[in-house]
Amino acid sequence: MRADSDEGWIELLFKVVGEGLRLFAEKKLGDKLSLIGPIGHPFKPDTDRPNTLLIGGGVGIPPMIFLAEHLTHDKQDWHPLVLMGSEIPFPFELQESTIACVWLPTGTNSSMPLLEQWKVPGRLASLSEFAGCHRGFVTDLAQMWLESLTPDEIAKTAIFACGPTAMLKAVAGLARKYNIPCQVSLEEFMACAVGGCAGCTVLVQTPEGPAMKRVCVDGPVFDATTVFPSG
User: Fold this and answer.
1) What's the pTM value of the predicted model, to 2 decimals?
2) What does the mean pLDDT of the chain come to?
3) Would strands 182-185 and 221-223 be described as parallel, antiparallel, or unpaired?
4) For residues 68 and 66, what is the distance between their CA atoms, to the nearest angstrom?
């Protein structure tokens, strides 16, 4: 979710859902872990498209926070908007945003404290009726924002997303509708994470035709049109 190469630390966000993560959660300050990374290919923002729409769903939220922080501290003049969705309680305290989003209905005003600290506009969506969140899908919020843009603003916009496959497919459809470049980070189980086992392969459209690509080393970030060519 966060990293600082100068200070030499990384921050992970995880949910305890099995024995391995239970043991991981029991680690104490000073314990040592064996890690490998970074692996694969990251998001690649384009300076010609500084209006960056970041969409995270569920466990796809941490990568969007990582990208938002990178853009905020980068020397380029980026304009990120972070939209996040979850059907279980968000892994942070909800904070009423002080950053106006005039394209939104009144009352949709919850955000993440870190985003508020970085002065990055953010909004949340859920069907679980959490306070200040849009009742619906996170792609609903994306649609509202895109509809508020002028053609010139659309021409300077790019989309970055991580989350469940159904959400990513819907995001890819929005990007196609507005003719906006879109990069998606896929969620797949990675057994070896070095490309050896081919357990995380997905079908990707390439200039040479359809091909199976390994998410751990060929991804996890792909051009949305190559993974979701239609639909």
Assistant:
1) 0.95
2) 95
3) antiparallel
4) 6
